[in-house]
Every structure is written in C-alpha cells, then in structure tokens.
Amino acid sequence: MMLTTGILTKYKDFLPITPHYPLFTLGEGDTPLVKCDRVATELGCGELFLKLEGCNPTGSFKDRGMVVAVAKAMEAGSKAIICASTGNTSASAAAYAAYCGLTALIIVPGGQIAPGKLAQAIIYGSRIISIDGNFDQALNIVLALAEKHPVTLVNSLNPYRIEGQKTAAFEIVEVLGDAPDYHFIPVGNAGNITAYWQGYQECRQAGKAKKKPRMMGFQAEGAAPIVRGRTIAAPETIASAIRIGNPAGWQKAVAARDESGGLIDMVTDDEILSAQRLAATSAGVFGEPASAASLAGLIKLTRQGMDFSGKTVVCVVTGTGLKDTDIALKNAPPFLELAADITTVEKALGWS
Ligand code: AN7
Questions:
Q1: Is there an atom of ligand 1 within 6 Å of 121 CB?
Q2: CB of 120 closer than 6 angstroms to any ligand 1 atom
Q3: 88 CB less than 6 Å from ligand 1?
Q4: What is the residue with the minimal CA distance to atom 14 of ligand 1?
Q5: Radius of gyration from C-alpha coordinates of the chain
Q6: How far apart are alpha carbons 171 and 160 in whole angstroms?
C-alpha cells in the first residue's frame, strides 16, 4: 500500500507551490473515469466516460480547489477561511480547515442546502451562518467581509481554487491519452468550467494532448443567467448546488465556451432528474441532481439531432448523490412492503 498522495504532491510542477507551501492531502483527486457503454449505445455516441468527482473526500470536485486554496492560506499565515455556498464548497472548506486547524466561516442560503452537505459543515466544526436570502446575496456578504477582515476567501474567485480544479482535466488526458472531443459540465458559479478549460489548454501546451475539447456547459433552466444573458434575481431549480443567478465566473465561462467552440445551454429540472436516473440505472453512478446537468445536456443535444457518433465524450459527475437523498426518495416508485414470510415474498416475486 502507498501513502495517499493527493494533488499537491502529484501535480506540484503545475501548481503555485513554493518552499514554504505545506504539502498535505485528504485524498483528493485521482477519481475514476468510468466508461459507460450502455449509455453510449443508447445515445449513439462513440465513447462516453463519466468522471466521478463525487469520489473526492468530501464528495465533490470542490476538494481539488480547496486543498490548494487552504494550503495558500496557511502559507500566508491566515487563521480563518470564509465562503458562501450552495453546499459543496462549504463542506469542503470545513473539512480542509478542520484538517489544518483553521476556522471555517460559512454563509449559506437558508433552507436551500441539501441535508448531507449541511451535516458535513456541522460535523467538521465550521461556524455556520444561514441567511434569509439566496446564494448570490450570501456571496456579496462574504466578498465584503473578506475585504474588511483578516479572513481568506475560498470561493472560486480565489484563483488558487481554479488552479487545483484544473487537475481533473490533467487526469482525464492521462487516462485517455488525449483530450476528449466534447467535455460536458454543469455550470453554477462558473468556476469549474473555467478550471477544466485552463487544464485542457495547459495539457495542449505541454504536449500531453493533441487536441482540446469543445466545452459544453449546462445550467438549470430556472437558474440560467449565462444562457439568458442577464442576472436572475430569484433563481429556482431542484438542483440546489447550481441555484445561482449571478455567477462570479461569468466572463471566464463565456471565454471557455467561445475559445473552445463549445456552448452553454440549459436543461429543465425534469431533464436533470431523468439524466440522474439514467446514470444510476444504466451505469451504476449516483450523482447529485446538479451533477446530472452534464449528462442531461448530452441527452438534450442528442435528441435535437447533434451527432456524437465516433466522438469521445466526457461528462463530469460533480458530486455524489448521497448528499441529497431526499430528491431520489421523493421521486422513487413505490416498493412492496410485506410480512416477513418466505411464501408471501415468493408469491410477490411471481416465483410460486
Ligand atoms: C455538485 O458549493 O457553487 O460552476 O457553493 O456543487 O464551479 O460553481 C457548487 C457548485 C456543479 C457548479 N456541481 O460548479 C457551492 C457551489 C455541483 C456543485 C456545481 C456546483 P461551478
């Protein structure tokens, strides 16, 4: 057995690492890239891979960026970090702060966080403030506080978050031997699409990849400011992680779209839920609703007649479904509840 390496050590030549930078890990990175032939056949695309970012230590891709941002905060002598969050950033910030002995201050939109994520922020011992408002309002408060007080902002406006998150693109290129043709990704605050695009560009520049993918970003229909070209004052979607009306990374996401020849489009809540179910029932992958927006996007474009035959497609599953079981249970078909009796069970199964 080898000691867990983590991305700081593995990718130190590509990260802003200096002699006083602490190299530590909770086991982030090195997540599975799962080939999903049944779904690929159903959709008629060449090869489909799901990148399982829910396998990171706190169950989402945020850990890649958080380990770099927290290490940089430590290096600078900071004692506290702060973020606004729809859930996953707060879970990650709380965990890495706990590991490093820092205080994590977390501001969340009241009643809009999936229970698993809130449980994480609580158990890791962060200081949580729930505001009567949405994520965009929480982010504005956090930005103002980080200007005035000695705390380090760890939302994706912190450039070290992007540095860490780009390593997921490195891993994909290492496994495939090149970049994919298409990279599908959910878009919320628009940090991750920025990070992957930067990662793919660096792979190309370093000669690790011959091509760059088209970046295919998907927002939820009720929270699609980039698609609509205007901020959304009251964003609404079942995919609470991406319920964001004024993304901080807006311009960079548009640049990633345009430079890559990709697109940023939207999917409905129903499309998100049915993609979540398809990944689960046809690939054994349970992602949270927001993370199913990528596959929902691929399904939508396929239905519209876009041809992915012969193409290599990666869909990022950004967070684990175990954070948000309420939604899966609410939409579940009823199952049989019987007496604890073999004959009764056999009869129900049609085996008698
Ligand atoms: C599962 O935790 O914004 O476009 O505060 O949790 O980089 O924001 C989460 C975002 C996609 C969108 N999938 O990524 C937060 C937060 C999941 C997420 C996104 C989020 P960005």
A1: no
A2: no
A3: yes
A4: 188
A5: 20
A6: 18
